[in-house]
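Recap from last week: sequence in, structure out.
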Amino acid sequence: MPIRHDTAMDYRERLVRVLRRLQEVAAAGEPTPGVEDLARLAHFSRYHFSRLFSSMTGESIAAHTRRLRLERGAGELARTDRQVIEIALACGFEAHESFARAFKTHFGRTPTEFRELATEPLDLPPAPNGVRFGVDDAAGRFVPILRDNPMQEVRVEVVKARRLAALRHVGPYHQIGDAFGKLFAWAGPRRLLGPWTETVGIYHDDHTQLEPGDLRADACVTVLPGVQADDDASVSIIELPERRCAVALYKGPYARFAEVYQWFYGTWLPESGLAPADAPCFEVYLNNPMEVAPEDCLTEICIPVEG
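Predicted structure tokens:
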């Protein structure tokens, strides 16, 4: 697909609005706006905004805001004689202790040590992926992160509807295999598994925004129209409706999924001319990871798009 420079610029301009708003609240020591408020400001789907943000900047919203607050605090320590507790509160921290811990983690020095050595050049911690990014206030432009393309192909198509037996998984996404094991144990004795069966994962949350233990996903297998869930089972029957999706065919280990999604959201979508729809992304697993080497696993990653 040819690069749509106008769309890429539109994505970046919309993200710049959010970055500037986060700079404003960090400078004022105000609470960070909620994800839904920031998504509305950028005119992005709430399902996909935080993924777009982290993929295009390399930081989660929380990490980006924390860095801005700490860098503001560092400036206050270097330029003023204000007490550390005053600076901590002005930067939006609730207590001296939380500010001091975060400051030392970020800069490798306590606030007091930093102030004493403030005349020395400061080596800022490296940004994610070793790239500095954000809004260049002098030029007023957004500096994106560039990534290599890890995909075999990306196509845009209407993905068929699927009727699914689903088992909810709550926890780190890489542990969803346990839910699939339980689902197969439920479906096998009922003779619901066969060559016709498709295995699907639906991912409802952005891993950069929530604690790993709070992430929600559904481990799913396709089932025929007559199949019903047991009353006492944790398996439910859900409908995944027909949707227009950007579908990326990825060949490789599941361990690289985070990198794959970063490229998909941070590079491909902004250059595609498309906007993500208000629906969760899902994955269709085309072969069995128990039967092939990790580098030979085939996965279709589907991001619903508008239009």
